[in-house]
Write a sequence for this structure.
């Protein structure tokens, strides 16, 4: 039972480089989200998706792109990495079915350092 | 401007006693509240939630209380166990859009044997 899988777990980039953080879930969840967590801070929403082909911005979207071509995958792209993007990135998913709200399930994170 | 505030960065309790973690919010549109537990180098794990139509929800040793008039919620853990030592995040969302969570900064709970 894999749940939400994030790769890589660690990454070091140089300023200006681009990269894609991968997120996959095997629970057939409609909703997926990306958050970042900075030291001493709570998680902040970057982008989210309510289904394949549908994405929207969260609180801190600048410098990031997302797409959702399949239900399972929700990659996060850093277009031109900046030191301010050094953070721990968490992907999450939840089902839209069932009674009331359903909680999000989180991956174990990608620790990204930008030099 | 923080919409969800956890004013205690840390809390230390003895094993077997009650742990009470507090959370305040400012956005009156929030109608769904959750608590997540996070161990180092892992993602947050869902613990318990409460809808704004309720004022209490229990799940085993964990109880969440919601006081809408005070815009305050609390998580009670009874009895506390050493394995409960973790960072606890309070989160809130609006109108059922719980993929758009707003998190507090977290409270680090240490349960001493």
């Amino acid at each position: 039972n894999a749940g939400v899988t994030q790769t890589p777990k660690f990454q070091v980039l140089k300023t200006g480089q681009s990269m894609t953080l991968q997120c996959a879930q095997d629970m057939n969840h409609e909703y997926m989200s990306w958050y970042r967590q900075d030291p001493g801070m709570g998680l902040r929403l970057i982008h989210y998706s309510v289904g394949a082909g549908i994405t929207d911005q969260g609180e801190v979207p600048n410098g990031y792109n997302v797409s959702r071509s399949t239900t399972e995958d929700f990659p996060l792209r850093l277009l031109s990495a900046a030191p301010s993007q050094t953070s721990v990135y968490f992907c999450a998913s939840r089902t839209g079915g069932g009674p009331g709200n359903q909680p999000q399930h989180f991956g174990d994170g990608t620790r990204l350092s930008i030099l | 401007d923080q919409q969800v505030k956890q004013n205690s960065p840390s809390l230390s309790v003895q094993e077997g006693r009650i742990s009470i973690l507090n959370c305040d919010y400012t956005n009156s549109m929030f109608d769904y509240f959750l608590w997540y537990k996070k161990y180092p180098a892992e993602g947050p794990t869902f613990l318990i939630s409460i809808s704004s139509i309720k004022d209490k929800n229990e799940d085993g040793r964990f109880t969440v209380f919601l006081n809408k008039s005070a815009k305050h919620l609390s998580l009670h853990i009874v009895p506390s166990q050493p394995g409960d030592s973790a960072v606890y995040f309070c989160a809130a969302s609006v109108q059922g859009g719980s993929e758009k969570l707003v998190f507090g900064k977290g409270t680090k709970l240490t349960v001493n044997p």
In short: The mean pLDDT of chain B is 93. Residues 82 and 111 of chain B are 5 Å apart (CA to CA). Chain B touches chain A at residues 4, 6, 32, 34, 36, 41-46, 49, 51, 89, 91, 93, 96, 98-106 (CB under 8 Å).
